[in-house]
Amino acid sequence: MKYKLLAASVLATLSTSALSATYALTELGNFENAKHTYVTDVSENGHVIGLANGLYNIPIDISYIDFTDSLIKNAYTNEVNSFELSDKEITFTLDDIENNDAIYTNADAHTFMVRFLSNLSANFEYQKISSIVATNYNSGVITEQSLFDVASVDYDGLTRSTSNFYNAVSQDGTTVGWGSAPFDKITFTPDGETEEQTWFTREFIERGILISEGGVDVPLVPEFTEHGGTSKASDIVATDTGYVVVGNVSVSIPTERQTLIADNCDGLDEPVMTCIESINSRNTRGLFNKTAVKWTLDSAYNVTSTELLGLALTPKEDEDSNPFISNALAVNKNGVAAGFSNTRYFDRDSTILTMPVYFKDGEVVDFIEQRDDWQSGKAFAINDNDIVVGYATKRIEGTLRNKLFYHDINTNTTVFPKGYFISSSSYANDINNQGYIVGEGEIGESENTRRSEAFIYKIGDDKITNLNKLLPCYDSDGETSFSYKMVEAKSINENNEVFGVATKTVEKRNSLGGVVTDVNGNIEYESVAVAVKLSPIPNGEVENCKAPDAEFYERSSASFSWFGLLLLPLVGLRRVFRF
Predict the structure, then answer these.
(1) Inter-residue contact 570 to 35 (CB < 8 Å)
(2) pLDDT value at position 561?
(3) pLDDT digits (tens, 9 = 90+) for 272-303
(4) Cβ pair 296, 243 in contact under 8 A
(5) Element (H, E) at 350
(6) What average pLDDT score do residues 293-319 get?
């Protein structure tokens, strides 16, 4: 098939590119405080939320650190060795950090301390730091949305010690997510000792939250709050009377974990909460039994009901050593939720798997056929036609691969599109009510060259389409290769606008935000992630950047014309997405 250039009259209307394509790419904004930006959800009314990662100028508290301690001295020795291997001379000493404010003026020193503290994330005698923040996008401006973080008492600004997951936004701009409590620096004297020690503790490990467009914060507190309890909020739908929010909550602690707490967390050798944190992080399924939940709220953000959605299995009386978990990651306007749950292997009762499920009419339905060797997975989204999308995992060509799927609840049918090639791992992140699915999959069949690129797929079509094939070949000068590569498609609305993450090359910046140069003074460059929007171009046509037979990857199913789909009328209905 021959692909033609778009007419010059249409080209003049495009700000992103002067050459043809079926989608125009627009960056959603610039966030000067971090290296990378991401989209997590978009409402039909245009509210966009996301995350930023790689914060510059993360505050470091050195007031409590003993710089003669072997931990930091050994880390510094390793840093010196690393510099030498790169034929570079280290630019700071530990004395510079302790006495000469090097972490504020020397990017290498700051990077060293960030890495040192990150490597000690399980040691609660050292400061906890986080480089991920929640963000709101508004007309090209990106602003931070604090979930649970507070102003620090040790340095200017927030503590930067919280986890932040900003997951979903409703049609009116009300958002949900979850995060952790900020860490407090406390003094503690172990039993039998006389010298106070510094420890870092927090009130809870994870807590769901709802935030109105006007800034009203509503923590979604679980009923089981022992040791802080846990809750997560993953998706939200606005209703005529308020909101429906789904996620999961702690409901209990297994007997074996309770015994572990009683035997170890007596508050004598360490603060009780740091002991709880250690038990939670050491175990794959954590500390708590957690169950999928549906909260109903009125228009004033009051929780009017809390419905536990259950598990895809019934725990036996003697199964009280490890926690059981289910989680609702998405919900549609019909109140049907989708997510994942622990369930039993089909022919071995004692083997517990985590599989995609949906929650409907009081039932938890595990719908992936395990007899076909599917061993795990999650459902990420559900549209208003009760079609669920996500991924499941099986062994393909000797290696476990994740494969995108869609499941129609009404017909009880599950389809696994081929993806870019048979053994390509792929994920379906979202689906709109027209049946368009977006996600990402691996390209490059060699294990050493695989990388993810974003796709769009239409239910009933016979092909999965790499979104990069629908973008321009060149930048506005008509000569330079297009600057962006779509790596993740996270959300699609009813206008078939796609929101996701692209990479582009920019000037490299260090951990203090300064531009990096090499030994000769030349500016270095790096690839970063940026949040983007892809807008369909009326009458756009695909450019022939590569050989025509490389444009699409076929799968064996019913045929459907991709170009015909682009001309279908668009209906302004809400879509459901979960990060």
Answers:
(1) no
(2) 27
(3) 999 999 999 998 889 999 999 999 999 999 99
(4) yes
(5) strand 348-360
(6) 96
Of 455, 379, 469, give the one whose Cα is nearest residue 418.
Answer: 455
* Calpha distance 274→289 (Å, rounded): 19
* 3-state class (DSSP) for residue 132: strand
Write down how long the chain is. 579
Dihedrals phi, psi of 551, to nearest 5 degrees: -70, -35
pLDDT at 264 over 50: yes
Strand (E) or helix (H) holding 466:
strand 463-466
Q: Determine which helix (DSSP H) or strand (DSSP E) holds 451, and give its type and residue range.
A: strand 451-458
**Res 87: pLDDT:** 87
Residue pair 253/279 in contact by the 8 Å Cβ criterion: no
Beta strands in 361-417 (DSSP E): 363-366, 376-382, 387-396, 399-408, 413-415
493 near 433, Cβ under 8 Å? no
Tokens at 104, concatenated: 């504020």
Q: How confident is the model at residue 449 (pLDDT cuts 50, 70, 90)?
A: confident
Pairwise CA distance, residues 350 & 341, whole Å: 16
CA atoms within 13 A on the CB side of 136: 18
Taking each helix axis as running N to C, give the angle between helix 70-85 and helix 107-118, from 0 to 180 degrees, rounded to the nearest 10: 120
Closest CA to 577 of 452, 390, 415: 390
**Residue holding tokens 């503790």?**
201
Cα gap 327→117, rounded to integer Å = 31
Q: Which ranges of 248-381 would DSSP assign to H, the alpha helix?
A: 255-264, 272-282
Asked whether 178 and 208 are in contact (CB, 8 A), the reply is: yes
The DSSP-derived string for 469-511 is GGS-SB-TTSSSBPS-EEEEEEEE-TT--EEEEEEEEEE-B-T
Torsion angle defined by CA atoms of residues 396, 400, 403 and 408, in that order, rounded to the nearest 10 degrees: 90
Q: What is the mean pLDDT of the chain?
A: 90
Q: Provide the 3-class DSSP secondary structure of residue 272.
A: helix
Instruction: Give Cα 532 distance to the centre of its chain.
Output: 16
Angle at 318 between CA 314 and CA 323, to 5 degrees: 60
Does pLDDT of 2 surpass 80? Answer: no
**Pairing outcome for strands 451-458 and 463-466:** antiparallel
Cβ atoms of 146 and 157 closer than 8 Å: no
For residues 383 and 194, what is the distance between their CA atoms, to the nearest angstrom?
A: 61
How far is 31 from 297, CA to CA, in rounded Å? 33
Sort residue 16 into left (φ over 0), alpha (ψ -120 to 50) or beta: alpha
Give the SS3 label for residue 244.
Answer: strand
